[in-house]
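Hi P.,

Sorry for the delay on this. The queue was packed all week, but I finally got your sequence through. Input first:
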Amino acid sequence: ADGEAVADALRRLAEAEPPADGPPAPPGHVATGEDLPPPDETATERGSLVVVWGAPGAPGRTTVAVNLAAELGDPARPVLLIDADTHAASVAQFLAVLDEAPGVLAAARLADQGGLDRTGLARLAPEVQAGLRLLTGLPRGDRWPELGDRALADVLDVAVRLAPYTVVDVAAPL
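Then the structure:
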């Protein structure tokens, strides 16, 4: 997936109709990964998706994304921060998180296999502070072709069902 594919995935998710059936998650529910219902009983309530983007050369996109997520994050209303910067993913470094394997790549691979659900995504996105989960990005831009376009859209679709707020840090040249 390149910058245009990320943009297309975000557009598709933004245009999708929220599901009308099924019970919403209980108020104040905090998704830990272990306490989520089985995949066939997942909540259908969709949270808000916020994408932080700026024109090429505009500094501070990652700083804004991280600070926005940190301010929104609350144990009762958790936030998922996704580093989808296709050129220089740096949220993990910004938060001093040791990242053995890119979470966004693992999530996309699970989605490609049809196995990504809220529980799986919660396991791939560790809580870095109370109420703030992080799905780490790819450390090198040349690895983005490893992600399928549809898989990234699926990751975003599950993300908005995991947390009330999903903040996505993206590269400038969308």
